[in-house]
Design goal:
This is Lysophospholipase. The protein has 79 residues and is an alpha+beta fold. Helix content is 39%, strand content 20%. It has one domain. The N terminus is likely disordered.
Length: 79
């Protein structure tokens, strides 16, 4: 999946499992139609759609915003 990643950190009190989904707007319609978001939904799912962005959100003009959102998600999960 594009930016959906499952993170497991060994050495903690049990594994920390979290998912993040970051995608651009045009592909999001197909994602909803095929039920991908529902398939990865779990206890901790962060979903963010960037209007006007394409599928490669880490190389868009707003990449700083995307990376900031991913960093904030990881900080929250590990915090």
């Amino acid at each position: 999946m594009t930016a959906a990643r499952e993170w497991e950190f060994a050495g903690t009190r049990g594994a920390i499992t979290a998912r993040i989904w970051a995608d651009g707007e045009p592909r999001y319609i197909a994602v909803l139609a095929h039920g991908y978001v529902e398939a990865i939904r779990g206890g901790d799912l962060a979903q963010r759609i960037y209007p006007g962005a394409r599928h490669e959100v880490f190389n868009e003009t707003n990449r700083d915003e995307v990376l900031g959102d991913v960093t904030a998600f990881v900080d929250r999960v590990l915090g």
